[in-house]
Design goal:
Aspartate Aminotransferase, domain 2, Aspartate Aminotransferase, domain 1, alpha/beta, globular, 13 strands, three-stranded antiparallel sheet
């Protein structure tokens, strides 16, 4: 029986083998493994693509979030860290790194609920909390979940009214857009992950921060290399969080294909949309209907009340599925006594109990996609 994987990285490698092998060979020739030329080349290429002044390569998407918040603490407070009275609003329906980065920056995460259709942060819930927060909130972290943009116009409007920073978490949405602007060019900073499974991924961990602020650019470049311009005479409490030359070279080679691969993902999603429409008990993802909003389908996420039954059925058919994410952050032990909640977060909890993602590999064949649709329709009979 044929197995349909969530993601076939071997297939992707074969597709771009010439470019990747050439990039690796270049690194073997120059042997500049730390801050080699590919790091700066990638930073410049992504800055041009996103339409920002600066991109700063870092060791992971998680560290991109942590360094952004640390740099913002230094810039806005003149302190190495925020303190527990400082609040940062975000969604509980995301990977733990988003909330964990807030804790690591010294601040308190405030979890507000999601929009039950897009799974992204509910702007109305953010607005409600800001109306009662008495100036404690310092910033917002919107997470562009599954490849779909949050409503950035409304978020930036709220940030402007309340003098807040906005750190975009774009780990799942490289290449996505909001009304004519690339994600990562809208907030104060943008945080990207190059984890191998991402739309633009390396062969290990890696990340990038985007910004338009000269001071933040300077601070970030210090923080990622132990906190100073001179590693033997540092200014801040820093990290060893640089992007490896080897990962930069691989991501730079794969960057050539990002728009093509995102479009391929959209085509797979369109086949799902058409083939699964109207199935009883299966809720399909809702793409934002506004113009110039580009969903890049890092995941094609559906939901079902009988999730475990559907997943078991598909597994028997050789079809992989995954749940992102089974536990909302406010239910995790790490956040106990270290967080605030606005409301009951019922939409986040319900989504966590019902969502699961189907394969949306950019090189996935029409035949495989149709086989998945057929299998789901068979379960529904």
């Amino acid at each position: 029986m044929k197995q349909i994987q969530m993601l076939d990285l071997k297939l992707e490698y074969e597709y771009m083998k010439k470019d990747i092998d050439s990039a690796l060979a270049r690194c073997l020739e120059h042997q500049k493994w730390i801050f080699g030329p590919e790091v700066r080349e990638l930073e410049e290429a992504l800055a041009a693509y996103l339409g920002v002044k600066h991109c700063i390569g870092v060791s992971s998407g998680t560290e991109a979030l942590v360094l952004s918040l640390r740099a913002l603490a230094i810039k806005t407070k003149g302190a190495e860290y925020f303190d527990r009275t400082d609040e940062i609003v975000t969604t509980p329906f995301t990977f733990t790194a988003t909330g964990d980065a807030i804790l690591r920056s010294g601040a308190t995460p405030v979890f507000v609920d999601i929009d039950p259709e897009t799974y992204n942060i509910d702007v109305n819930a953010v607005r409600e909390y800001l109306g009662s927060s008495s100036g404690r909130v310092k910033g917002i972290i919107p997470v562009h979940l599954y490849g779909q943009s949050c409503r950035m116009d409304a978020i930036m409007d709220l940030a402007g009214k309340h003098d807040l920073f906005v750190v975009e978490d774009i780990a799942q949405a490289f290449g996505g857009g909001w009304q004519g602007r690339k994600l990562g060019s809208i907030g104060t900073t943008g945080c990207f992950s190059f984890f191998p499974s991402k739309n633009l991924g390396g062969f290990g961990d890696g990340g990038m921060i985007s910004c338009n602020d000269e001071e933040l650019d300077s601070l970030l470049r210090m923080l990622l290399k132990h906190g100073g311009r001179d590693k033997y005479n540092v200014d801040h409490i820093g990290y060893n969080a640089r992007l490896d030359t080897l990962q930069a070279a691989i991501v730079l080679a794969k960057f050539k294909y990002i728009d093509e691969f995102n479009e391929r993902r959209r085509k797979v999603a369109a086949l799902y949309d058409k083939g699964l429409q109207g199935l009883d008990g299966l809720v399909l993802p809702v793409a934002d209907p506004l113009p110039d909003v580009h969903h890049v389908y890092h995941q094609y996420t559906v939901r079902a009340k009988k999730r475990s039954n559907v997943q078991a059925y598909l597994k028997d058919k050789g079809i992989a599925t995954m749940v992102y994410y089974p536990f909302p952050l406010h239910k995790m032990k790490v956040f106990e006594g270290r967080m605030k909640m606005h409301g009951d977060l019922r939409h986040s909890e319900l989504a966590a109990s019902e969502v699961f993602s189907l394969p949306v590999e950019p090189l996935q064949s029409v035949e495989d996609t149709e086989a998945i649709v057929t299998a789901l329709r068979g379960f529904n009979k």
